[in-house]
Amino acid sequence: MKLDAILWDYDGTLVNSIPKNIDITKQILSIVAPRLTGLKSPKYLKTEKDYHIANHQSKNWQDLYVNYYGMTENEMLRAGTLWTEHQLKNNTPVELFSEIKETINQINLPQGICSQNSSENINQV
Q: Do 25 and 50 belong together in one domain?
């Protein structure tokens, strides 16, 4: 099979964005569902491992927010409108996974990134 190009996913493939995503979600919870903050923070926002489990078991972000984080439907809908704004404002560092840079540089094909993340965040890495 001949390859013409490689398209990379950003979150979870090129970078570990889980710490940033957890922080963003906690910030949004403090606005739309303060009852789910502090000691009452959802289990799935306490560790990267738990976040990963919930993220892969949920059908989509709406399911994640309602059935894993405990938001009501209205809270989930409001949270969805805040994600991009908070993602762009959040300064939690995101780094390439080890050896990704070397791998990318060894591939002699056009490469691109497909992501729901903002191009501003991707360009910073």
A: yes
In a shared domain, residues 83 and 29: yes
Q: Please answer whether residues 112 and 3 qualify as being in contact, where contact means their C-beta atoms are separated by less than 8 angstroms.
A: no
pLDDT in tens, 62-116: 999 999 999 999 999 999 999 999 999 999 999 899 999 999 999 999 999 999 8
Structural domain containing residue 39: 18-93
C-alpha dihedral sign at 26, 31, 33, 37: positive
Residues 29 and 2 in one domain: no
Rg of the chain in Å (alpha carbons): 16
Q: How far apart are CA 30 and CA 26, in angstroms?
A: 6
Beta carbons of 83 and 117 less than 8 angstroms apart: no
Domain total of the chain: 2
pTM score, whole prediction = 0.86
33 with 79, same domain: the answer is yes
Angle, CA of 2, 7 and 11, to the nearest 5°: 150
